Amino acid sequence: MKPPIIVVYEPGDVNIFQSIEDAERYLESPDVDQLIAYDSEGRFLDLKVPESKGLSFLGIGVIPVTKVTISSAESQPAHIEDLQEILHGLLQHLEVSMEWLEKATLDDLLVKSIEQIGFTR
User: Mean pLDDT by 10-residue block, N- to C-terminus, for the chain (121 residues)?
Assistant: First the structure.
């Protein structure tokens, strides 16, 4: 796994974390099923939540918020094009020039995305 870590909630809703630890600290367990994560090389990442018992307060179920752990789901980056498409869409939404976007590599897209939205902390 090579940081930065890119986490996608839905198209256009992207967070970029400087480290795995930053991402694990920020992410919340109830959201994990809605997230897709990649490392900077296009490796798909596995987001896991440790098993925990559901809590109840006055008979109302409460969803516990527990730590999320991140690990690599693949040894070789197999989702480079997916990550490029996500970052391309983000930058297009932020009105980065189409001419620049058409020529950009994955590294270019990642650097520009960090310049535009910064790291999530």
Answer: 95 93 93 95 94 60 79 97 96 96 98 98 91
| Parallel/antiparallel/unpaired status of strands 44-48 and 36-38 | antiparallel
- Secondary structure (H, E, C), the chain: CCCCEEEEEECCEEEEECCHHHHHHHCCHHHHHHCEEECCCCCEEEEECCCCCCEEECCEEECCCCCCEEEECCCCCCCHHHHHHHHHHHHHHCCCCHHHHHHCCHHHHHHHHHHHHCCCC
The rounded distance, in Å, linking the Cα atoms of 113 and 99 is 16
